[in-house]
Design a protein that fits this description.
This protein is mainly beta and 147 residues long. The chain has one helix spanning 3-19, and strands at residues 23-27, 32-35, 44-48, 53-60, 63-67, 73-77, 81-82, 86-89, 94-97, 106-110, 115-121, 126-130, 136-140, 144-145. It has a five-stranded antiparallel beta sheet, with no helix packed on it. It starts with a helix and ends with a strand. 22% of the residues are buried.
Length: 147
């Protein structure tokens, strides 16, 4: 294999990987109404509370097709979403620790469905999060959704 083909293959692989990065937004100040089509004339399917994370899978004009924590797909106006990042706890009693280590002190425990503010990614599958009451720490990435 020539060096040119090797470099082109590596560049294509990186471009594909970047294209698969998830785009998450957070529901803004008002709850978001999710529709079955990109129009307010569509059927209203769900109402998502403010602060909830949604994965944007497609943009169509002023509308976005989103996936929620349950995996359901629906449409909502893009203007109702914020770039602020929150995550939602997917498991019962997720332990948020002081450091990126299972042996670290538990700062707090978050129940399934609790919203946490997304901090920076840690190492080895840990994510830094912050509760609205100010407590912060690291949680296993598999215990949350929305990042």
């Amino acid at each position: 294999m020539s060096i040119t083909r090797l470099i082109m293959g590596a560049a294509l692989s990186l471009a594909c990987a970047a294209g698969w990065a998830a785009d998450f937004k957070t529901v803004g100040a008002a709850p978001a109404v999710l529709y079955d089509a990109p129009s307010t004339k569509g059927v209203k399917l769900f109402v998502v509370p403010r602060g909830a994370p949604l994965e944007v899978v497609l943009t169509y004009g002023d509308w976005v097709k989103v996936r929620d924590v349950s995996g359901d797909l629906a449409w909502t106006p893009a203007r109702g979403l914020s770039s602020r990042r929150n995550v939602i706890v997917r498991v019962h009693n997720a332990k948020v620790r002081a450091a990126e280590d299972e042996a670290s002190t538990v700062v707090f425990t978050a129940d399934k469905g609790v919203l946490l503010e997304l901090g920076e990614p840690g190492t080895n599958g840990w994510i830094k999060v912050r509760h609205r009451d100010g407590l912060a720490g690291y949680v296993r990435s598999g215990d949350i959704w929305g990042f």
